[in-house]
């Protein structure tokens, strides 16, 4: 019987702020057993990271542990002094942080940073430490480990950096590794490599993992046991199988239903949980989830006791709910297709926006370059991109980060000047045209609502400005009326009008950004990663909102995202980009079924689905995404392609070949591609 | 009312801002009510009482013409603060606009403006001010002009770097996508988010300007006698340093007090206006 390596016993943590005491974690008891992977899931602000870090003594100066014991290997560490904590962290616990780019110090080589810890804590010589670091990098399959050790953090890619941090965490042979959303900053194709590595490490080493995440797909792949945390308290805990098949707490059930997933019926709207996380300063007595819960009754004003539910696999299943297991309904409305008609009721046949051979090169030349008359270095952000969008249609654009999808959005908005090619809007060439009426017709919603709303302006200023600028309304009373209508449109309370953005939650801010874009009734909106910065529980509601607005205003979307599930839900057609070029374009069903472009198949297969077991085999792409400043000759994907290649692959850029409106840019025979096995079983894509 | 209460509750949490603002308020009150506070006429000569030691009648004694030093120091606050604040205002407005525009436009225009600022900065400040004053002649207005010109480049740099931080934010892109004009983006979208470092720089600058102005007066190119001015007092007291050493100490103390007050205020403002702190206020 494996004993617990870390056990939390009735732990409460609070932070002192000027607004009052924030009770970030309340009476949490859980244990991580030797060699197991325990996933802690919850929305942002639920206290999951606080809990994990506090259990290693990492608390900011204003935080304190109010009650409870934290036992590491049976020893209470709450009373540890600085030196003892240092020893604990250095020798027995490893950490992997969310952002690999800031976790490494840019002033030191990878080798110096890897060996620093073990030299200090174990007193071994530098040579010995380097040998161990090298062996560790080899063990986790990092190519060319000797050179990696000599490099500086900026010289290696994000995926590699995250693997290095794993190596660093493993070097001291710890009993436990704490991982705080380690794949959130990574692309799906890199994420899957990372997850494979973790699986591999777990099969070979006896190390426990406390994995903090909000991604259910990863939980389904990795975890042994799962704990769900809401507003600082543990609401449910059980084995992975139990949690996915028979979740008992209403919150867990809601969370499971709100994940946009490949297996979801596209005809149905996504489920989104009503309400917001409660304010942790003035928490209601009793169950914190009660205000958002559909089965909450009078008994919920008292704190729910733990309930043990018998599980199929015998793993303890704890639920903190008065109504555990109560049947809930997650039924949602259906999505009506948006079909555009002209004034005579005939369906539109002319594309609203057409992009032909669009090119965007970023030229960079230094002073010495100019002096020596060297050709400027070029970054090929967009190369020969062509597609068209019909009125009322959504075109999803997917690809890894750096593939040029955001540049595409900005070039269409003419925020950056195109290097070549042309953009047609309603048949008119607008490539180099700047006019107020175009600004009114073409709008954009950005990824991060924190950055896209001016923090100094009130919602009134933010929403009324486009109305005023484009002469839609004027005068205080009329503007206010219009702004109220905009708030109604995105389902925000009217009382928000004079608030500043920082008083709103992430999802609410994104709604404001959408309202601002729709204030001028645009016919085309670029949605640049609009759901990526949001919690899973609100992603669905934003997608639903976009779909409702689309039907109301007959708007077309260019929906840029790296989240294939979200793209599948909203898009009628999908374009796949790789290194500045389109590799596949087609209807959503065409893209998700063979024939696939090899890259599309790799992308699709890298998704982690929230089901057990994973219904599909993942294809691991070798190597790194090449630099867009120096793309490979011929087919750009050839350096990572896993299929047998022909001569043309290395020399000729493949043209997009269309059949039934489904375009593929690949030298391989269409018949061969058509014979490909589907990534997901038929039954999945309804 | 609630606004004042917020200001006080904020100040209580930042001791240096608290002390700084109290000291600066004292200075401002002294400057405004100087004629009522001063016990004697600062210009009145009294040859019979030259170099009188501190007494109840003359708290800081008298100078070489028998004028009351305390009254002269009190009245000197007006000149010093007047020059200090007006130069700072000119620098903050002109330098701020130059820096913001330069940072926002980027490219060639940015290059051109910043190199011009670099050239101005390459001259030692006091030397440059001396040059301007010897060309324009000495008067308070010219002192303000001279010190402003030497001070603008620094403010412009601060404004530019803070503008570069904000320029990449998506709300700027959103404003461009909406079709806003450049001046609107600069003044309404950019400025409110980039103004904090400029304010902080300005408040620290006040002390520095007062020092420079005093140095110019000391060299005889700033305010002209018999105007009561701290730099001038030091300049004339220098000759009698062995006969009346305290004569030179009083204005030095006044200058030090003022400089420290504004620096404390600046330090405090920097902490308060730190964007990371904004969420907490």
Structure description:
The complex is a heterodimer of chains A (about 675) and B (about 280). Chain A has about 675 residues and is α/β, with parallel strands linked by helices. Chain A folds into three domains: about 5-320, 3-Layer(aba) Sandwich (Rossmann fold), CATH 3.40.50.300; about 355-550, Rossmann fold (3-Layer(aba) Sandwich), CATH 3.40.50.300; about 575-685, no CATH class. In chain A, strands 6-7-8-3-9-10-12-11 form an eight-stranded mixed beta sheet, sandwiched between helices. Chain A has an eight-stranded mixed beta sheet with strand order 18-19-20-15-21-22-24-23, with helices on both faces. In chain A, strands 2-1-4-5 form a four-stranded antiparallel beta sheet, with helices on one face. In chain A, strand 16 (about 420-425) and strand 17 (about 430) form a beta hairpin. The model of chain A has no long low-confidence stretch (mean pLDDT about 85). Chain B is mainly alpha-helical and about 280 residues long. Chain B is built from twelve helices and no strands. Chain B has helices spanning about 1-15, 15-30, 35, 70-105, 105-120, 125-135, 140-165, 170-180, 180-220, 230-235, 245-275, 275-280. The relative contact order of chain B is 0.15.
Task: Put the structure in a nutshell.
The complex is a heterodimer of chains A (686) and B (281). Chain A is α/β, with parallel strands linked by helices and 686 residues long.
What attributes characterize this protein structure?
heterodimer, A: 686 residues, alpha/beta, Rossmann fold, 3 domains, 8-stranded mixed beta sheet, 24 helices, 31% helix, 22% strand, B: 281 residues, mainly alpha, MetI-like fold, 12 helices, 76% helix, 0% strand, elongated, disordered C terminus
């Amino acid at each position: 019987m494996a004993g617990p390596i870390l056990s939390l016993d009735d732990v409460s943590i609070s932070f002192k702020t000027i607004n009052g005491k924030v009770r970030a974690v309340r009476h949490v008891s859980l244990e991580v057993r030797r060699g197991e992977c325990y996933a802690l899931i919850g929305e942002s602000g639920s206290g999951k990271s606080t809990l994990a870090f506090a259990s290693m003594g990492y608390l900011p100066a204003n935080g304190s542990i109010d009650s409870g014991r934290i036992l590491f290997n049976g020893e209470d560490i709450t009373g540890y002094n600085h030196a003892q904590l240092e020893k604990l962290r250095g020798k027995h616990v490893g950490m992997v942080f969310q952002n690999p780019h800031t976790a490494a110090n840019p002033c030191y080589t990878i080798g110096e940073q890897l060996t620093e810890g073990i030299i200090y804590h174990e007193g071994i010589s530098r040579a010995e430490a380097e040998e161990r670091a090298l062996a560790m990098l080899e063990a986790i399959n990092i190519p060319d480990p000797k050179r990696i050790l000599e490099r500086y953090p900026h010289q290696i890619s994000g995926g590699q950096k995250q693997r290095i941090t794993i190596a660093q965490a493993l070097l001291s042979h710890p009993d436990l590794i704490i991982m705080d959303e380690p794949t959130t900053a990574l692309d799906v194709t890199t994420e899957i490599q990372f997850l494979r590595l973790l699986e591999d490490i777990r099969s070979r080493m006896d190390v426990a993992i406390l994995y903090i995440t909000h991604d259910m797909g990863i939980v389904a792949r990795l975890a042994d046991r799962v704990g769900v945390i809401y507003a600082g308290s543990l609401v449910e805990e059980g084995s992975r199988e139990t949690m996915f098949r028979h979740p008992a707490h209403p919150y867990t059930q809601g969370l499971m239903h709100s994940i946009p997933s490949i297996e979801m019926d596209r005809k149905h709207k996504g489920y989104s949980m009503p309400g917001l996380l409660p304010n942790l300063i003035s928490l209601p007595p009793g169950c914190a989830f009660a205000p958002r819960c559909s089965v909450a009754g009078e008994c919920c004003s008292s704190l729910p006791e733990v309930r043990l539910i018998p599980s199929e696999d015998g793993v303890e299943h704890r639920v903190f709910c008065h109504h555990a297991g109560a049947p809930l309904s997650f039924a949602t409305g259906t999505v009506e297709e948006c079909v555009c008609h002209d004034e005579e009721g005939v369906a539109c046949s002319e594309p609203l926006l057409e992009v032909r051979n669009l090119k965007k090169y970023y030229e960079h030349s230094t002073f010495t370059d100019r002096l020596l008359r060297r050709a400027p270095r070029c970054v090929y952000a967009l190369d020969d991109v062509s597609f068209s969008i019909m009125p009322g249609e959504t075109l999803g654009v997917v690809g890894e980060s750096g593939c040029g999808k955001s540049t595409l959005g900005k070039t269409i908005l003419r925020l950056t000047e195109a290097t070549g090619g042309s953009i047609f809007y309603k048949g008119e060439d607008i490539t180099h045209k700047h006019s107020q009426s175009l600004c009114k017709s073409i709008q954009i919603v950005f990824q991060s609502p924190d950055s896209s709303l001016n923090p100094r302006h009130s919602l009134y200023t933010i929403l009324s400005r486009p109305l005023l600028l484009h002469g839609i309304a004027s005068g205080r009373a009329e503007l206010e009326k219009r702004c109220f209508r905009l708030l109604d449109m995105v389902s925000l309370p009217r009382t928000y009008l004079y608030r500043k953005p920082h008083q709103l939650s992430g999802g609410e801010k994104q709604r404001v950004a959408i309202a601002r874009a729709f204030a001028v009734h645009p016919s085309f909106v670029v949605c640049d990663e609009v759901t990526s910065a949001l919690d899973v529980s609100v992603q669905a509601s934003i997608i639903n909102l976009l779909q409702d607005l689309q039907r109301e205003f007959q708007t077309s979307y260019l929906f840029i995202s790296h989240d294939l599930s979200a793209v599948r839900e909203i898009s009628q057609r999908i374009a796949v980009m790789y290194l500045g070029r389109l590799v596949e374009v087609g209807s959503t069903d065409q893209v998700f079924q063979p024939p696939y472009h090899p890259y599309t198949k790799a992308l699709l297969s890298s998704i982690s689905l929230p089901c057990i077991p994973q219904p599909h085999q993942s294809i691991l792409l070798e190597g790194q995404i090449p630099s867009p400043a120096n793309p490979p000759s011929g087919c750009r994907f050839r350096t990572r392609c896993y299929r047998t290649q022909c001569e043309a692959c290395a020399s000729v850029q493949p043209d997009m070949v269309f059949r039934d409106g489904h375009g593929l840019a690949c030298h391989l025979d269409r018949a061969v591609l058509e014979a490909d096995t589907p990534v997901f079983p038929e039954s999945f894509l309804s | 009312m609630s606004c004042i209460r917020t200001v006080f509750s904020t100040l209580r949490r930042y001791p240096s801002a608290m002390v700084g603002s109290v000291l600066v308020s004292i200075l401002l009150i002294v400057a405004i009510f100087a004629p009522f506070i001063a016990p004697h006429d600062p210009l009145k000569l009294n040859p019979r009482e030259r170099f009188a030691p501190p007494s109840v009648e003359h708290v800081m004694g008298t100078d070489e013409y028998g004028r009351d030093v305390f009254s002269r120091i009190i009245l000197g606050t007006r000149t010093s603060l007047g020059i200090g604040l007006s130069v700072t205002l000119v620098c903050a407005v002109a330098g701020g606009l130059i820096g913001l525009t330069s940072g926002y436009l980027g490219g060639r225009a940015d290059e051109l403006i910043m190199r011009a600022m670099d050239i101005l900065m390459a001259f030692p400040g006091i030397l440059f001010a001396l040059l301007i004053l010897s060309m324009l002649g000495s008067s308070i207005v010219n002192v303000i002009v001279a010190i402003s010109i030497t001070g603008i480049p620094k403010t412009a740099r601060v404004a530019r770097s803070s503008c570069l931080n904000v320029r990449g934010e998506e709300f700027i892109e959103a404003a461009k996508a909406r079709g806003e004009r450049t001046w609107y983006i600069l003044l309404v979208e950019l400025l409110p988010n980039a103004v904090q470092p400029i304010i902080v720089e300005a408040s620290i600058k006040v002390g520095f300007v007062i020092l420079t102005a005093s140095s110019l007066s000391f060299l005889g190119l700033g305010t002209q006698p018999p105007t009561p001015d701290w730099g001038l007092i030091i300049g004339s007291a220098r000759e009698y340093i062995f006969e009346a050493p305290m004569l030179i100490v009083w204005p030095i103390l006044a200058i030090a007090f003022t400089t420290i007050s504004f620096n404390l205020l600046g330090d405090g403002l920097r902490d308060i206006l730190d964007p990371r702190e904004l969420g907490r206020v």
